[in-house]
Amino acid sequence: MEKGMRKLKIYIETSVWNFVFADDAPEKKDKTLKFFEEISKGVYDSYISELTLVELRRTKDKRKGELLLEPIARYHPTELARSEEVYNLAAKYIGAKIIPRKYEDDAIHVA
Fold first, then answer.
1. Are 32 and 69 part of one and the same domain?
2. 61 vs 4, 12, 22, 56, 82, CA distance in Å?
3. Contact 75/40 with Cβ under 8 angstroms?
4. What is the pLDDT of residues 95-107, one digit of tens each?
5. With left for phi above 0 and alpha for psi between -120 and 50, is residue 4 left, alpha or beta?
6. Is the same domain home to 60 and 97?
7. Are residues 65 and 99 part of one domain?
8. Distance CA 85, CA 77 (A)
9. What is the pLDDT of residues 20-64, one digit of tens each?
10. Which long-range contacts (C-beta less than 8 Å, at least 24 apart) are formed by 30-39?
11. Do 55 and 87 belong together in one domain?
12. pTM of the complete model
């Protein structure tokens, strides 16, 4: 990274963590692992939400849930605190029909 340039800040939602183990989609898995290598090198500042952690822990297969949390422990993304601003923005996306109500969690991720 050039001197004086700021690192990009990247929010990593649930599906990205799942791609670490996507043996059925090797091209996505490979790109995701390369992305995490860049995070390890300090190219990006990475962030995660409490919602992402909840979704990863919600998996029916407890062993898979534990596996999904391992990369989070390895790459140490900063956990974003819940905020009223996020929920208000998500509600605006839903109200404007940008994101359907049935995908409220996705609206929260985007917000």
1. yes
2. 45, 22, 15, 10, 26
3. yes
4. 999 999 999 999 9
5. left
6. no
7. no
8. 21
9. 999 999 999 999 999 999 999 999 999 999 999 999 988 888 888
10. 36/71, 36/75, 39/10, 39/75, 39/77
11. no
12. 0.83
Check whether residue 51 and residue 87 sit in a common domain. no
DSSP-derived secondary structure for 29-95: HHHHHHHHHHHHTTSEEEEEEHHHHHHHHT-SSHHHHHHHHHHHHHH-PEEEPP-HHHHHHHHHHHH
The 8-class DSSP code of residue 2 comes to -
Total residue count of the chain as it appears in this document: 111
- 3-state SS class at 25: coil
- Asked if 72 and 17 count as a contact pair (C-beta separation under 8 A), the reply is yes
Whether 5 and 34 map to the same domain: the answer is yes
Whole-angstrom Cα distance, residue 79 to residue 54?
12
Domain count for the chain, please give it. 2
d(CA 27, CA 18): 13
Q: What domain range includes position 3?
A: 1-80
